Amino acid sequence: MELTLEDVRHIATLARIGLTTEEMETLRGQLGDILAHVSQLNELDTEAIPPTAQVLALSDVLAADEPRPSYSVDEMLANAPEREGNYFRTKAVLGYET
């Protein structure tokens, strides 16, 4: 598949990267080589291979949700740069101070 400069420009826009015309020319060739290499997969005979939706066995990676002792407020705020009572003190986020 031959990529055009417009294709590369579109890909760069989607990736949010700025490219010079020279970089786009280089990338056009590199992406073309990658697509040609991947297109070789279309030539493989996969008739004897059963379709799979998941190639690895699924397992539950979540730990059990069990209650356990928590840190105290003083322990949680011990390394806070600033605190106000039992709360973290931060700079204004929405543009105004309370």
Can you characterise this structure?
Helix content is 36%, strand content 4%. The protein is mainly alpha-helical and 98 residues long. Helix 1 packs across helix 2 (21-39).
Could you provide a short overview of the structure?
The protein has 98 residues and is mostly helical. It is built from 3 helices and 2 strands.
Shape type = flat
Please state the structural category.
mainly alpha
The CATH superfamily of the domain at 5-43 appears as: Glu-tRNAGln amidotransferase C subunit, N-terminal domain
Q: How big a fraction of the residues is strand?
A: under 5%
Q: Any key phrases for this structure?
A:
98 residues, mainly alpha, Histone, subunit A, two-stranded antiparallel sheet, 2 strands, 36% helix, 4% strand
List the helices and strands and how they pair.
Elements: H1 5-15, H2 21-39, H3 73-77, E1 83-84, E2 87-88
Antiparallel strand pairs: 1-2
